[in-house]
Amino acid sequence: MTASKPEKTLKDLFGSDTNPSHILPRKYTLDSTIKFRCHPGVSCFTACCGNINITLTPFDILRLRKRLGLGAPDFIHLYTTPLYLEKTDMPGVKIKLNEKNRCPFVTPEGCTVYTDRPTTCRYYPVGMANFHERAESKESLPAAEQFYFVVQEPHCKGHEEEKIWTIREWRQDQGVDLCDEMNREWMALVMRRKSFGIQATLSEKAQRMFFMASTDLDAFRSFVFDSSFLSTYEVENETIARIKADDIELMKFSFRFLASALFGTEDLRIKPEKIQAKVTQMKEQQGQAAQRAEEAYRELVEERERLKGELEQKKK
Ligand code: SF4
Ligand code: SF4
């Protein structure tokens, strides 16, 4: 007998608002086919660009703000609203809908940022899920089973179109594979945090660090290159050259940093001499504290002896 346990995946972040009753009761593989087409001729064109939650990943933010020619602070201020990711205490952002509850990038002609649209928009209507099948034997390792599912909502007329795709072709066409690759490590951080449950909380400093690294790559760059970061962490010269020249490399590096800073992974190590200096400093502080405690104790003993002396004098 086997037991299966749902594993949180990209689907949770990008499909959390999907009504489960609209998910077709079938597991799809990459070679399964779907009948779907979305184009300006459908009667529902852009109907799905309103009344939605579009959580943005660091990759989404980077692409969108470059497309719009904005720095991260302006983009965050103008186009997003804060949220906690996946019911964790990790702060993130989603697209701020306009007064009509519509995406600010939608027009009657369609999406104005189409080639740089967020991951959530690319996923629809095909989601991805993972299940971990556990065999009975303790020795056997859990085997991940990945599958896809299709969302069919009444308002979406794309399912009535005749175009047939395999899931693989659909994902390629939508550029989902690239998004998955870019989002994977960041998503893993969120899911890792979620697995800790609500009992453990991130410090305010850690939350600020996560938000900065996830939303503002320029601020993270400055944190790396204009602070004592490079003299504190072990970073290979080749990596330094790559993250200096390429934003995507810098973004991926920020995930490594967050994994080690938030979860103590070995993704990034503090230089041994820095650890040694810290140990010495702590020892010194401990030594000073012990010395202060000894002095206080001596003073107390002296005071007690003085009082004793006074009492004895009075008795005479
Ligand atoms: S970003 Fe584009 S595709 Fe996504 S909701 Fe907005 S208008 Fe629609
Ligand atoms: S509702 Fe479906 S068919 Fe209509 S625009 Fe959105 S994705 Fe395309």
Tally of domains: 2
| Residues in helices, as a percent range | 40-55%
Please write the string of helix (H) and strand (E) elements. Answer: EHEEHHEEEEHEEEHHHHHEHHEH
Mean pLDDT: 85
Strand order of the largest sheet: 1-8-9
Radius of gyration: 28 Å
Shape: elongated
Low-confidence segments, ≥5 residues, pLDDT <50?
1-16, 133-142
**What portion of residues belong to β-strands?**
15-25%
* Count of DSSP H/I helices: 12
Count every beta strand, where a strand is a DSSP E run of 2 or more residues: 12
Query: Any ligands, ions or cofactors bound here, and which?
Result: iron/sulfur cluster
Question: Could you please describe the fold and organization of this structure?
Answer:
The protein has 316 residues and is α+β, with helices and mostly antiparallel strands. The chain folds into two domains: 3-195, no CATH class; 216-270, no CATH class. The chain has twelve helices and twelve strands. It has helices at 10-14, 58-68, 72-79, 119-123, 167-174, 176-195, 204-215, 217-225, 229-232, 237-245, 247-263, 272-315, and strands spanning 3-7, 33-35, 55-56, 80-84, 91-95, 106-107, 110-111, 126-134, 143-150, 164-166, 233-234, 269-270. The strands form five sheets. A three-stranded antiparallel beta sheet has the order 1-8-9. Strands 3-5-4 form a three-stranded antiparallel beta sheet. Strand 8 (126-134) and strand 9 (143-150) form a beta hairpin. Helix 7 (204-215) runs antiparallel to helix 11 and helix 10 (237-245) crosses helix 11 (247-263). It is elongated and about 110 Å long. It starts with a strand and ends with a helix. One iron/sulfur cluster binds at residues 49, 54, 103, 105-106, 111, 113, 117-118, 121.
